Structure formats: C-alpha cells, structure tokens
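I have been asked to look over a protein record a colleague put together. This is what I was given:
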Amino acid sequence: MVRKTTSKTIKRRIQAARKGKAARLKPAKKQAPADARAPHGALPQWTKAEIEEAFRRFAAANPNPNTELEHADPFTLLVSVVLSAQATDAGVNRATPALFALADTPEKMVKLGEAKVRNLIKTIGLYRTKAKNLIALSRQLVEQHGGKVPHDRVALEALPGVGRKTANVVLNVAFGEATIAVDTHIFRVGNRTGLAVGKTPFDVETKLMEVVPGKYLLHAHHWLILHGRYTCLARRPLCEKCIIADLCKWPGKATAHVAAG
C-alpha cells in the first residue's frame, strides 16, 4: 500500500532538517570567539605533566617526523622552504623536480637565470618575487659562502627571501638544531590549545622553546605542523580524532565533539 505524505508530515521534516542544520552550524559559530580568546591569555595553563604527556603521544604516534618538502640537501631544502611561503608544500613539490633537474646548486641556479626560474615556478604564489630571491640568494651563497648553505642563523637571515621561520626550518632539518619554525599551523595550534599563547609568531616560538621538554624539542616543530595540517584544522578541527583532545584547553572542543557525533 502506498502511503500519502501529508502537508503536516512535510512541514515536520523541513523543521527537523532545519534544526539539524542549525545544530551542525552551531560549533562553527562558537569557534571564532573561542579562537579569538586564546592570544589574550584567557585559556587555562597547561601543567608540565600535561605538556610531557602531549609530546609523549606525538612521539609514540610518529617517532621520526620530517618535513614534507622534497629535497636532497641543504640547498634544495632552502630553495623549497623559500618557495613554500604563502604556498602549500604539495604545490612546491609539484614545481621543484623540474627546477632541481636544471639547478640543484647555487652555481647552476645563477646560471639558469631569473626568467627561466620564474617560468619553472610560475604555479607557485608570488613566483616573480621568489624567482628574484632565488637568484639573489644563490649568488650570495656563491660569493660569500663558497656555494654552501651556512650553518648560522645570522648568515641565513641575511640571504634574500630568508626570514626567521625559513632559517629555523633549515637549521632544524639540515643541521639538526632544536629550533621551532612557527608557521600558520603552529601559530594556530599553540594559541588554540593554550599550549603556547602569543600574539606574534615570535611570541609563540619563545613560549614553545620554554615549555617543550628538551628531549622532544628536535621534533616538536614537525609534530605541531603536522597536527595543525591534518588534525587541528583552521576551519573545522577534527577534535574527535585528536590524540591530545583531553589535554587541550580550547573552549570550542566540546562543540566540535557534538558536531562529530
């Protein structure tokens, strides 16, 4: 027997659907205010034991983390990091094979020339400026450092297109120094979770260097970036999959769990 759908039934279904949609949108509406509170120190403080436990879990889940930028040596790493500014690692990795096939040393990069470099990296944001910087920094490496990437923060930051974050990545990945390069992911994770609250990337970096246990400092940079990239997402954090959710101080995590459920 075919049952007729009455107007009342349809009305109830529409109301239920609207109610369900509102419930799903509610966490997102609360997320922005929750995130905004963090840099002003409104979140509870983590204890030393909680911080130790968080990084113990990161280490257990991923004992040997590394950058997702494809590189073969300090120079190709430096180039990749410079290219990654305001761009994704995946996008950089799509462009660099062709570039490195022709210019995997500072000398070859200078010889290749700005116009050809620009053409090879044109799929990456700000490619014109980045091409100019790659030629300039390569020339400086040849003239001042014998074609080698310097193991020195001041010298690295003196290179065109290289700032503190880029220098920290190179020092960490290429030279094994316990540095933390605060990108947009780490800045968000530090503030949102309350682990390292700060109004600027340098504030967050300084705080992390103070609170992260020494035995975890070398890999902390990668764990936090990967956590921000794949779990603690900007628009919709995956709190239901987060391995430190019970330790996190973010006031929006409860509503995130509701949305997941």
In short: Residues 1-6, 16-28 have pLDDT under 50 and may be disordered.
